[in-house]
Amino acid sequence: MRRFLGLLVLAFALTATTGAQAYHRFWTNCNADPATFMTTMTRDAAQDYANAARYEGYQWGGGCWNYDDVDAYPYDPPADAGMHGEGGDCSGLTFKTWRESTDTWRDGRWYWRALRNVHGPYDAAAFRDGVGAPNHVVAKSTAGVMDAFASGTHIGMVFMRSPYGGDQIVEAKCEACGTNIFYRTYRSDSSYGGVGRWGWTG
Amino acid sequence: MGLTSVSAAETAAARVPMRPFVDAAHVPPALTARGEPVTLRYAIVCPPRDDGLPCAGAGTVYLRPGTSGVFRAYPLGRGGDSSEGRYFLAVPPDIAADGFSYYAVLRDEDTGATTTVPSGGAAAPQLSLPLGDATPVSLGRHSFGRPRDPDAAAAEAPWGSAAGEVGLAGSRALGFSGPSSFDVEADGTVDVLDSVNGRVLRWEHGRPRAVTLDGREELSDFAAAPDGGFEVLQPQGTFVRYRADGTPEWHGKLADRTWAKLAHGRSGSVVLQEPSEQWLPVADAGAPLTRDEQVRAARSAKPLQNGHDLAVARVGANELRLAELRGAARVRSWRITSETPLGEVQLAESRGNRIVVVVRVYTDDRDEFEVLVLDPDRVAARFAVASDSWTETAPLARFRLAHGGLYRLRTTPSGASVDRFDLEVPQ
Asked: Of B213, B277, B124, B354, whose CA–CA distance to A166 is shortest?
């Protein structure tokens, strides 16, 4: 009986630990602060913003990170928004970098700080199709710095083109690979389309 | 107790201030046409500011005619548009005309952080050369849907994890990944990096054999070593050398933040890296190189097996410039134009006294590859190859040139294959 009770206590302890993992993950650090309306939005300020999210991880459906260069919860199960880990997903990172509104009809510029937990209303396919007032489709051959390439499953922003014809792409790629600047050939891949954000000021 | 300590630790992590840093991006004008104005442009990237404005960057370009002598300092200007890099220097025409070498030191005025591009600075500067009297090659408008069939299937495997199968990961929602790279050895052995299953599949005389690695290697690039071992370049810039039996021999770290392609150099593997936009050696005679050794030995042009180097410059949407070099001296060059937009250069290698180039052509909804076999004064052969990529691979890992011809990694909903295209062209 004593052995049974001991095992029961151990089982409860393990359950509590698992519960702590599930309910006190990275999102407990995040906030719901309002976005700041801005009159300017330059492509290099967008490079600054997206570049700072490098190494901060990937979270399906996420949009919240800090700046410690470490993914607090790497290797979560893919496609599970309930894990509440650190980082944006591909469309969440694009939404915040492009200073968009959660209202799809607004095309103004809204600055979301890193720890503001917001994903925005668009998935990769919606961006690809130019859904929402701030977004539009562009010819892939004309896509430039901080325009994007989007497919039905992913979106990444052009950090800079390359002399070999590919692009440095800043993207939240996957749980295992996180957010970083990778060399990609999305521009010439027929499963990707070109996407732009209206309203750059320089 | 457990809950309290986790929350406290995470809250502290959330308050970590951003470390000062400065990063950069730059597209070098590797090959310039006669009379073309040359402007060096840089994006300077800093921690994001609370006011949402771009960083207060500044920088100096150190420039010299040719490849020797003293560098002269030129301050960068700051323009109103950042679409190709806000910071710029118009290179004096008399220096641009005959070629020049240069590097830049860039800084964030708010924090004082600096970075040098390319990473080797004065020891391994970027090189810009005149294209000279290049052979013109006009591809016209690409006719999609008429690709050449391969001459042979060198390796084939269905999706799966059993013997003789190759791994597939992902879903319709996430996208699919499969084998991320491959190589072909001198004796015709085909090695496929079975990334999902964490192994290499070796087809010797047409029969597959598996060599188990450390773990999954998704979206890694891959090269077979002459001693039967393997080299794997992982997405986050770690370079792993494996013995022939799959046990790790050593690990190295790339000097730059981003890589495009792992390739065979003349005495070890080389990697095209960004932001330097140079080929950096990562190993020499089977031994790893330190970061400092990598950046000091960087080259702007790719080392070819014929002892020369090849400078590559995709210009605008419709032009590709190539120059074969002996040192910094141009041996021959080509100016390739296309009415259909040109994408990435998947492969550019020497084959005897010819150059073989594989470049993607694309529209907004179609893509194929153009294969060009270049003589000094003409196109010796040209054909189209279907894209046939159902899964994502390492970016410039779809083709390999080996003794038997040109090889292509192909994936479909049913599996993966490596196909061979013969390149026998009458001299």
From this structure: B277
